[in-house]
Write a structure and sequence with these properties.
about 675 residues; mainly beta; Neuraminidase; 4 domains; five-stranded antiparallel beta sheet; 3 helices; 56 strands; about 0% helix; globular
Length: about 675
């Protein structure tokens, strides 16, 4: 289940937010007039102890902020239970994390940024005077002190008294107010280089303010890019086109495109009803808008070329700002305000579109969602920031060696197919899904390292994989995440990640290109090796392999014929006679039998639309997990009538019929294969 951790409180109405991944900073606005920031990698404010040499005597405590030993108080206690049993115990609110055995040089390189990435807790570290001792010479542990500082500690000599080397840092506060004086700011987004912020004010302005100068980014330093907007809310920045899109919170508002060079405004879509959230697809063809309409909260889709609006899903409680759930844009996270106080996921990859809550019980009035990585998000609520871990504690340093594929844990893969629907609260709901594309294989580096492993191999069908991949690794030198190649050596050994390294995708073991094998069932296995590259035997019951159903084929989609009363209508044909009876010959199929869903939709007039017919795998569940879809089939079974009571354009207007298809193939993070076709005719029915 998802877990929620408070990050900051007593805020002045936190609303819109933007996570700048390169700097690991969350920028957000507070309705009270502030531009603020939360740093996930905090800078160093002061060095309290610098590789100080200290002795911690048995039964004594030590304050790691000053290196002073005491009989009471302090952050760590070298507890002596008897002549054999000994423990390093965190005290007085301090927490501890075991890092591993390091050389003096490795210890010196262990940075404050890396200490911040560790998982701290209250469990003591075993220091028994026998083979179970983890506090051997060279052992390193980290402590978050009772004062909130970070210390790294290395054991130099072990005994009743411990000789230690200690470095302690005081860090800058994570939450900082950068600028003030804004008039009810609603949203903020930041340029890719991190130098510029764009802010909407409820009073009607889109602002630009510099973040990389010595001048504080207060309102007086901001430039008005565009004014005269009506309560603009969420921003979608397109630096490649030098434009920004915003939506207006009004009874008849607009989706507006703003030229960032000259401030020119173009209304792209009309008659939005109290719009707040906005997302624009990567290909700049489609927008999604959340609205607090009088009929209820909803999400609608906008064709950016024509401005045509079509429904996506309704039934939301005071929907606010949104974020795409993945790179393929097959889902949307949306904040729902009180009384729901949750984040919901809109699953665009199924037909009909569905939604379900993924993060309930949030602080009062959540307004925006910012994704940190594949499983973690920050939610801005009225007075608080919350870190939500969607995967909970699914992936840990214990457990299996092969953790899973992307969001799919290894024990939710059966007979090669992913099925996470057995856990209704899990955010990535997928049923009987095969795998394809580049697969993020999740490997338990911590368990491997604790087992003495320095290397691992990945085998598919017993054949060693020799595929390099890249991930982001934090650099102490540049103080940023660096794109770092991970390349197997000549023996096809991959290095186990070192203790204290801060990798952006913590559990990633390989990005495996599944196009290297044919469609079908394949075995994936990981094996671990010591520093001498000798194999380490995996204990019985520890999962190190799984079968995966691979499918890299694409679905077939076609709409060859539209029938009027059983007679074919040519492309761009004009229908001038009754009856109002239409049907459609379609193909929506998957060659491997892994179709997910199809939907045929009619678009006409001023943002009018209707669902003609649809179907999904949920209606065809069976033990084989196969559903091929339909081929050259006429739908719907009873025909379709265009006329909508009260809408004369429904029977006298150009109509475009769009057939869209998803298969069920995933790469573990995203849905993969989508197809779409359309055909247009004109209806002039009597």
């Amino acid at each position: 289940m998802p877990t929620s951790t408070p990050l900051a409180g007593a805020l002045a109405g936190a609303i819109g937010s933007h996570f700048h991944g390169a700097s690991r900073r969350l920028y957000f606005v507070e309705f009270g007039g502030k531009l603020s920031r939360y740093d996930f990698v905090r800078g160093i404010n002061a060095v309290l102890l610098n590789n100080a040499s200290r002795t911690l005597q048995g039964t004594w405590l030590m304050n790691l902020d000053n290196g002073v030993m005491a009989a009471a108080g302090g952050d760590i206690w070298w507890e002596q239970i008897d002549n054999v049993q000994r423990r390093m115990v965190p005290r007085n609110g301090a927490t501890i994390a075991y890092v591993g055995v390091m050389s003096a040089a490795q210890f010196a390189a262990l940075s404050a940024a890396q200490l911040q990435s560790l998982d701290y807790g209250s469990t003591p570290i075993v220091g028994d005077n026998n083979a179970s001792n983890r506090l051997v010479p060279g052992a390193v542990f980290a402590v978050r002190t009772d004062a909130g500082n970070y210390a790294k500690v290395r054991v130099v000599t072990y005994g009743y008294n411990l000789a230690l080397r200690i470095t302690t840092w005081r860090l800058n506060p994570a939450y900082q107010v950068l600028g003030t004086g804004y008039t009810n700011p609603e949203d903020v987004t930041v340029s890719a280089d991190g130098h510029t912020a764009y802010i909407t004010e409820r009073s009607g302005n889109l602002l630009r303010v510099a973040l990389n100068t010595l001048i504080p980014p207060n309102r007086v330093a901001a430039t008005v890019v565009a004014s005269g907007l009506e309560a603009p809310h969420q921003i979608s920045l397109r630096e490649d086109l030098n434009v920004a899109y915003v939506v207006e919170f009004a009874a008849a508002g607009h989706l507006v495109r703003v030229n960032l060079a000259n401030g020119a405004k173009t209304n792209v879509a009309f008659n939005l009803e109290r719009a707040i959230g906005l997302l624009v697809s990567a290909d700049n063809t489609t927008a999604y808008v959340s609205e607090q309409a009088a009929s209820g909260g909803r999400v609608r889709r906008v064709d950016l070329a024509s401005g045509t609006l079509s429904p996506v899903l309704g039934g939301f409680t005071a929907p606010f700002m949104m974020a795409f759930s993945n790179a393929s844009e097959s889902g949307i996270y949306i904040a729902e305000r009180d009384p729901a106080n949750r984040v919901a996921l809109v699953d665009l990859g199924v037909s009909p579109v569905q939604s379900y809550g993924v993060a309930p019980g949030l602080p009062f009035r959540p307004s925006s969602v910012a994704l940190l990585d594949a499983t973690r998000m920050v939610v801005c609520s009225d007075t608080a920031l919350s870190l939500v871990d969607l995967a909970g504690s699914v992936l840990t340093g214990s457990g299996p060696l092969l953790l899973g594929v992307g969001h799919v844990p290894v024990d939710r893969i059966n007979a090669g197919y992913a099925d996470t629907t057995v856990d209704p609260g899990y955010f990535f709901q997928r049923k009987d899904c095969p795998f394809g594309g580049s697969l993020p294989l999740m490997f338990n580096h911590e368990r491997a390292r604790l087992a003495g492993a320095a290397y691992y191999k990945v085998l598919v069908d017993g054949v060693e994989v020799n595929q390099p991949f890249v991930d982001y690794l934090w650099s102490n030198t540049t103080q940023r995440f660096e794109n770092t190649p991970v390349v197997p050596d000549a023996g096809r050994f991959y290095p186990v990640r070192q203790a204290g390294q801060l990798w952006y995708n913590h559990w990633l073991g390989l990005m495996y290109d599944s196009n290297a094998v044919a469609n079908g069932l394949h075995s994936v296995e990981v094996r671990i090796y010591n520093a001498a590259k000798l194999p380490i035997v995996v204990p019985p019951g520890v999962i190190s392999s799984r079968q995966l159903k691979i499918d890299n084929s694409w679905p077939t989609v076609s709409l060859p014929t539209i029938f009027h009363n059983g007679v074919p209508v040519g492309t761009c044909g004009i229908v001038t006679t009754g009856p109002d009876q239409f049907s459609f010959e379609i193909t929506a199929s998957d060659p491997e039998g892994h179709l997910g869903s199809w939907a045929l939709q009619a678009l006409w007039g001023d943002n009018q639309s209707a669902l003609v017919a649809s179907d999904s795998y949920a209606n065809h569940l069976n033990p084989t997990k196969l559903w091929a879809g339909v081929v050259n089939t006429v739908v719907p079974a009873g025909g379709w009538a265009a006329t909508v009571p009260g809408d004369p354009t429904s029977s006298r207007c150009a109509h475009t019929f769009v057939l869209s298809v998803w298969d069920r193939v995933i790469n573990g993070w995203n849905d993969l294969h989508y197809g779409q076709v359309h055909k247009s005719i004109t209806l002039m029915l009597p």
